[in-house]
Design a protein that fits this description.
By secondary structure, this protein is α/β, with parallel strands linked by helices. It has one domain: Aldolase class I (TIM Barrel), CATH 3.20.20. It is about 50% helix and about 10% strand. It is built from 22 helices and 10 strands. β5, α8 and β6 form a beta-alpha-beta unit. α7 runs parallel beside α8, α7 packs across α22 and α11 runs antiparallel to α12. The longest helix has 26 residues.
């Protein structure tokens, strides 16, 4: 590509294969040290109990616009960002243009001649993610431990060994990175990948999760550093007003109890936020990740002052979820309720099973499914047929009239739909990477 600056790392010698992958994932951006300035509304959110506030973006320019607080100053309370496939898709051509993906590929294949195309592309994608994460850390950490969540390639769901290896690479590329492991109902080994990375000291952000029981499972089976509730998609798909907020608060309360009673460390991320009001309605939850636009709107609105912002951790919205009547009729209230209610029997089983020697040494996802199924909780997982995958891939939210919507628990379906959506973006990026080789 004419006019492209050669990658200065392209010609350097490497000690081995791992060294090459990690080095290519570094940033050429100089470290910035902007002044940190407090934003009163975000400071009030922290005072209400929130530990971290992340921006949902992979774009340094978008983040710079949001964080700017005057000449050479940035907002102090935003201390991380999360990047998934749709967000990386927005910037990947910029990174491929400035780098030398063909050179990366040649260097890796020279050190591992048996490397197949299916193995190579996830590595090249990880290199791009490493550069994205390092660019943002260099620009905005300003002496802090900036937490950047980088999601694994979607093709790794069925390859736990490769998923863990690339998770290690991401953490070595970006020392403050959290590895985003998607919950894959069709690949139960995702819990084992998350568990093993955490046991190695690599923090995991367990994503594609939509219910309190999924959050509890992430905490008890993998003791992940973070897990999520995608509140915006819940409200959008079920045409609700406060369902996502209520699920988040119930999940937060469940995780808080388990931190106290079971010794887990898992924090909840309120994710997939669509409007600034969600900060107010769920104030005090552990962590937030929101689009830059939602954070900007929160900071510039005048309806709620910092003094008005109070913890909502003990608030229940169950009697005012605002779900459309036809949605309730189509799905049944009990199926909706399962998004936010966690059976005590489920918690008891997971607490006991996760402490066994059998589980601690388990590496078989099918065996994990069978153990949960025998205990009556197998519907946490589901492996769609090709026809069902085609149906799932049609949209981000459930079709109320579709047969699969009537068959599956809503959280399982939502997770499958999120993964299918991410896979479409992944396929686009894989084609773009392949085109540069």
């Amino acid at each position: 590509m004419s006019g492209r600056n050669p990658d200065p790392k392209a010609s350097r010698p490497f000690d081995d294969f791992d060294d090459a992958v990690i080095t290519y994932g570094q940033s050429s951006r100089a470290e910035a040290r902007p002044e940190l300035v407090s934003a009163p509304l975000l400071a009030a959110l922290r005072k209400a109990g929130t530990s971290h506030i992340y921006a949902d973006t992979a774009d340094t320019e978008e983040l710079a616009d949001l964080l700017s607080a005057g000449d050479k100053a940035i907002i102090a309370e935003i201390d991380g960002n999360t990047a998934n496939q749709p967000l990386v898709r927005k910037v990947i051509e910029r990174y491929l243009d400035r780098g030398e993906p063909a050179t990366w590929a040649q260097a890796l294949q020279a050190r591992r001649p048996d490397l197949s195309a299916d193995q190579l592309v996830p590595l090249l994608y990880a290199i791009v993610c490493g550069q994205v994460g390092n660019d943002i850390v260099q620009a905005f950490a300003s002496g802090r431990s900036w937490e950047v969540s980088l999601q694994l390639h979607m093709g790794l769901a069925s390859d736990p060994a490769a998923a863990k290896q690339i998770g290690r690479y991401l953490r070595r590329m970006v020392p403050t990175a959290f590895v985003k492991v998607p919950f894959a109902p069709h690949a139960p080994e995702c819990f084992l990948v998350a568990r093993d990375l955490e046991q190695e000291g690599i923090p995991v952000n367990f994503t594609s999760t939509f219910s309190a029981r999924q959050a509890v499972a992430a905490g008890l089976l993998a003791n992940v550093a973070r897990t999520n509730i995608f509140m915006g998609r819940l409200n959008q798909g079920l045409r609700a007003e406060l369902l996502g907020e209520h699920v988040d608060l119930e999940a937060q309360r469940a995780l808080t109890r388990l931190r106290r009673e079971a010794g887990i460390k898992t924090q909840l991320i309120v994710a997939s936020m669509r409007d600034w009001q969600s900060f107010v309605r769920t104030a005090g939850c552990d962590v937030y990740t929101a689009p830059c636009s939602a954070i900007h709107d929160f900071l510039t609105q005048t309806d709620v002052s910092p003094h008005d912002l109070q913890s909502q951790i003990e608030t229940s919205y169950e009697d005012r979820l605002g779900i459309a009547d036809d949605v309730v009729r189509a799905l049944g209230r009990d199926r909706i309720t399962r998004l936010y209610r966690v059976e005590p029997e489920f918690v008891e089983f997971l607490r006991e099973f996760s402490a066994t020697r059998e589980y601690q040494s388990l590496q078989d996802g099918d065996r994990l499914f069978r153990r949960l199924d025998e205990a009556g909780f197998g519907d946490l997982f589901f492996a769609p047929s090709e026809t069902e995958w085609n149906e799932i891939r049609r949209g981000k939210v459930p079709d109320l009239d579709a047969p699969i919507t009537k068959r599956l628990p809503l959280d399982t379906l939502y997770s499958l739909m999120a993964d299918a959506d991410f896979e479409k973006y992944q396929e686009e990026m894989d084609r773009e990477i392949a085109r540069r080789l």
